[in-house]
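Hi L.,

As promised, Amino acid ABC transporter permease:
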Amino acid sequence: MSRRRRRRLVLGGQYGAFVVVVAVLAALADWPQLQDNFANYGKAKGLFPEILTVGLRNTVVLTALGFAIGLVLGLVLALMRLSSAAPYRWTATAYIEVFRGLPLLLIFVFVGFGVPLAFPGRTVPGGTTGAGALALGLVAAAYMAETIRAGIEAVPKGQMEAARSLGMPYGRAMASIVIPQAFRIVIPPMTNQLVLLCKDSSLIMFLGISLGGRDLTKFGRDLAGQLGNTTPIVVAGVCYLIITIPLSQLARWLEARQRRGER
């Protein structure tokens, strides 16, 4: 028997075993019970339109604010990491290592409860939403900084040398020539970071948000507790997919377009 034929037989056996396992699990599952607890149409229908106008809207706003904060701060940290001044490099490196190493929940707790304790009488602008966006942005900046730094380093050094030879100041050359090219390189991974932020925004529920400020996870959890049914959580998960799947597809499309442009 040839190697190719053996490989086909092995693959066929694996596919067959997979189909058998799925069929057995499907036969043993209690589908009416699963439908009643996870896909109850009557309870799901009662969630609309509030789950979209409140939960989905707040999740999108929180994600967008966190991404904007992370992008601006990440760019500053990336430039500090590339600076010739050692204190800038040390500060940026310390920030990146600390915020990439700490759990995101800890950052939420620190921003939501630590800041008011450290600065009595002062709160983060925007209330709970502002605190959640700041926590997301602080952590996202640590990851974005490394992504942006890699993008800047990927720009050919001849671009900067040519600009400097024409008498252009370093800052202007970086802002008008290098950074725009770097951002074209890092757009795909930045899109993936946006997807991660969208999912991480669910941690805002630990800050004690109001009814009008509930994100998708908090909205689904509250309704699940009131109804004694997990369908609201499933519907909230579907709403997350409405956001994340198009963003993931966009990231893959941008990566494919970038690869085609490099050929």
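The CA atoms of residues 163 and 173 lie 6 Å apart.

Thanks again for sending the construct details.

K.
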